[in-house]
Each structure stands twice: as structure tokens, then as C-alpha cells.
Amino acid sequence: MKDRLSKAALGQLFLDARSQNAWQEHEIPDAALTEMVDITKMGPTSANTCPARFVFCKSKEARERLAEHVSEGNVKKVVTSSACAIIGHDLEFYEHLPRLFPHNPDAVNWFKGKEKHAETTAFRNGTLQGAYFMLAARALGYDVGPMSGFDNAAVDREFFSGTKVKSNFICGIGIGDPLAIFPRSPRFDFGDMAEIL
Asked: What's the CA gap between 39 and 135, in Å, rounded?
């Protein structure tokens, strides 16, 4: 059994971490975004499918392009973030399985020509990787603000045109403004959401 994470580490990842609603001015280096993805890709996905795809809208122009397709309440969150990630999933992820899952040469055929199965697998595992990404960002000392209030089809046309990538959610990254955080909402007790059989 490995050592338990410290209380401070658990706080940074989960217990004290909050979804951000506003951002302090901060320039995020490309190297930090690269490191977040390098950590993210090590999280488990079924058959190592790794379907998540990331577009980081870091420049002012890119954030403004994205902001044109988000709900009114999310515009400021996008344009004032250090970067806003579009987390998508590749519906043709299976084409990469000879490289990513080389010990089973038949793995491509588990998904090729099976559109619904491939779509479900891409969405599930891409969502997992989106969650890993947010934890990776927090682990590196950044705050995140995930959002689902945007026009997926418009974002896909704007940023994923000509590909089989579909957007899932977007996520602001940077240093959050603590004055803009709401009181933490209640959570279920263990018995409300889980049982041990």
C-alpha cells in the first residue's frame, strides 16, 4: 500500500479546491499547459483509448472567439481566464489503437464500424480524461472553472472543423479570485450516495 496523500494535498485537489467564477490576471506558461496534458494522459482509459483532445484558448483573440459561443453568464469567465480549455473527444480514437494498444492487433475492430459503441466509449473516456485534467491543473497549483454553458455545435465548427472531434465541456484555467467564490454548496452524506455490499 502506498503512502496516503497529506491533508494539504487532498485539500488542494478536492477538499478545499473550488470551481472558480472569476480570475486574477496571470500569464500561464505553455510549459504548464503541456505538463497538465502530460499528467492527464497517464490516467486510465479503457484499452488505453485516450480519446480526449484539448484546445487551449490562451491568446486574447482565441478566448474572444470561444466567448462568442458561450452563454452570457460564462463570457467573462472565458475572456478573463489565463486560458480556457476546450475538452473534446475524438470519435475515431480507435485509429490510434495500433500505437496505443499494440499488444492486441484486433483492438481497432472492437470499434470500427460500430458507431454507437465508439461514440459511447469516446465520450465516457474523454470525460474521464477531462476530470484527470482538472486534477492535474490543481496539482500544479492552478485553479479551474469547468463550464457546460456553451453551444457545442458552434464550438465544434469553430475549433474542430474537418475533424471527428466533438466538444464535451470547457474549463477556465488560472489563478482564481477568492472574492468571487460562493459559499460551498451542501454535499450528500455517504449513505445518501453509496452503499457497501
From this structure: 9
